[in-house]
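Quick one before lunch.
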Amino acid sequence: MYSGQDPERVMELLRDRGLEASIDIGIVTGTGLATIVKEVENALEIPYDDLPGFPQGFVSGHARRLVIGNVGRLRVALLQGRSHYYETGDAQAMRTPIEVLLRLGAHSVVLTSSVGSIKPNMRAGALTIVTDHINLSGVNPLHHEQGDARFVPMTDAYDVTLRHRLKRAAASQGVALHDSIYMFMPGPSFETPAEIRAAALLGADVVGMSVVPETVIARRYGLKVAALCAVTNLGAGLEGAVPSHNETKRMAATAAISLRRIFDTFIRTLDEP
Ligand code: HPA
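Model of the hypoxanthine complex:
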């Protein structure tokens, strides 16, 4: 259970290791996507294993490291790798890392992840930005929290300005970026074909096992959120699709190349009007 003590301890540790200035933005990189931000200069790199409250241990395809440094004119904290609800049954698994972003001074966080697509026009290799989500899983990271702050409005969860900037960055690089409604699936088993058909009926465009708990936590603390997803497969049963973790990792690595171009432009232009 979340203790609420860890973020301050992490901040002390970061200062001990030479943390100097605050950051502008946090970026969480999902499976196979750790390399989407290139050339972080003067980087302070710390394995999650050294940071209390950060995801411990290993999931294949996930580097687990905090990298803080300069990209162009901006200060960036990269959370390379996440903990998913399915690893521990704890939807708050990313609470400490997100609270640390806040304490580091971030105003925004960009989440990245892989997803399965329900739309035939978005196939493996496509990139999409989340405009809204559906979470009917019963899982919420704010369960057990007391006080009125837990009643977080989710009407504009995915920040329209960040979305616009990411779209502009993608367009300037000639990279197509779809819009999607993201449906949270708790995993770790993939969906059944019937669940994918149900998700489509409900209005989802993509399904995934992350993003949503992190978005709820980030909104809880007033951080602006954007979520950028790599389509790694068609949803189970669509055109005979049988999703697998291997396929997810392989396709995410391919998508990372286009994502890197988007992020490069996005970060370079973030302090422009
Ligand atoms: N389902 C859920 N999560 C995913 C998928 C999927 O098909 N592909 C990548 N992440």
